[in-house]
Write a structure and sequence with these properties.
single chain, oxidoreductase, six-stranded parallel sheet, 43% helix, two-stranded parallel sheet, FAR, 11% strand
Length: 305
């Protein structure tokens, strides 16, 4: 493959095998649509999925593909849907809940990993937040170390992972707690003891979500010496802007306050006039993921030459 940085993004993704976690989430759905539409020669996209509400992973995928988000693809490039390969697993389980057969298939075929799976609830128990957001990142890195053809691992973090810093620089900030010890603690202690420990862990951190994402960034930093890694920190992810459709969203999580105000249910909000809301359209985040992966992947090719 060409290693010249002027190589187009679609041509870079031609023939690539992508492993996407968080495929059923808001960001994951838009990522799938964008890749299939704008990088149609991608070889395949493996989607980590779990059964839900009496639906197996194939049924869940079909339901997702029936969303209005994929209307243009259904009409113009429906054959590309065959490139989507659901993989039974769960980010909350140890080893991502992968079977030995699926794990080996991913090791042999994957060239790019996009780790976007996360629980974004602020009130999760410490145990659950660590398992889903931190341990899964470690397990992704362990899996990636066995992939001989891997050229890029992109981890989707959050701009609020270091909320106490007035300016967030493009670097990994040291964690006050060792991520390996926290995973061991989350796996070994009972919920009651962990609930007591939570208050200590959150001395200077607002919630378990932020805490677990800080640790996950440290995981990526640890493995970056042996893996081609990048961290992406989007702010609040909002509905699509222009493409593929205007204003698409599949939940009210990021816009609930505006809906409540628009409907007249929320009349007053306690805030500061000096605070600016940091928001970004989901399709812009997806584009950045694709560009970061492209640049990281080309750099990996050059290093390996």
């Amino acid at each position: 493959m060409e290693t010249d940085l002027i190589q187009s993004i679609p041509s870079f993704y031609a023939g690539q095998s992508i492993f996407l976690t968080g495929a059923t989430g808001f960001l994951g759905k838009v990522f799938i649509e964008k890749v299939l539409r704008s990088c149609p020669d991608v070889r395949e996209i493996f989607l980590l999925m779990r059964p839900k509400k009496e639906q197996n992973i194939n049924e869940r995928l079909q339901k997702i593909l029936n969303l209005s988000l994929y209307e243009n693809l259904r009409g113009e490039q429906s054959s590309n849907f065959k490139k989507l390969i659901p993989i039974l697993g769960d980010a909350s389980e140890k080893g991502l809940g992968l079977s030995d057969t699926d794990r080996q298939m991913l090791i042999e075929r994957v060239t790019i990993i996009i780790h976007a799976a996360a629980s974004v609830r602020f009130n999760n128990s410490l145990k659950y937040a660590i398992c889903v957001n931190t341990r899964s990142t470690r397990d992704i890195c362990i899996l990636a170390q066995n992939m001989k053809n891997l050229i890029a691992l992109v981890y989707v973090s959050t701009a609020y992972a270091h909320v106490n810093n007035p300016v967030i620089e493009e670097k990994v900030y040291p964690s006050v707690i060792d991520w390996q010890k926290m995973i061991e603690i989350a796996e070994s202690l009972d919920e009651h003891t962990l609930n007591i420990l939570t208050a200590k862990c959150l001395d200077y951190i607002p919630n378990t979500y932020i805490f677990s994402k800080i640790l996950a960034e440290s995981v990526i930093q640890t493995y970056s010496s042996s893996l081609p890694c990048a961290i992406l920190r989007p702010s609040m992810v909002f509905p699509t802007l222009r493409e593929p459709v205007l204003g698409w969203i599949d939940n009210i999580y990021p816009i609930g306050l505006m809906i409540g105000a628009g409907k007249g249910f929320i009349r007053v909000s306690y805030t500061s006039k000096h605070v600016t809301g940091n928001i970004v359209p989901v399709n812009s985040v997806v584009k950045v993921i694709l560009v970061v992966t492209w640049k990281l992947g080309l750099s990996t090719y050059n290093i390996n030459l």
